[in-house]
Amino acid sequence: MYHVQLHFWIRGIDESVVRVWKKMEALPRFEHVFHLFSRSMRLPAGRNQIVFLDDKAPLQMQMLRQDIGPEGKIIVCCDEPGSIPADDLACVDDVWPSATLGELAEFRFRRLQERLKAEKDAWLTETYLEQTINTLPDMIWFKDLQGLHLHVNDAFCTAVNKPRSDIEGHDHYYIWGIPRAVYERSDYVCVETEDDVIKARKTCLFDEQVMSAQGLQKLKTYKTPIFDEDGKTIIGTVGIARDVTQENEYKDTIQRLSREDKLTGLANRDYFHHFVETECKDEALTLVSIDLEHFREVNEKYGHELGDAVLKIAAEELGDVFPNDLKVRMGGDEFGVLLRGVHPAEEVRLDVEKFQKQLQEMYAMDERMKRVQANAGVAQCKAGTPLDKLIFHGSAARAEATKQGDGTCYVASEIDEADSMDD
Question: How far, CA to CA in Å, does 27 sit from each of 35, 108, 169, 404?
Answer without folding.
Answer: 19, 14, 38, 101
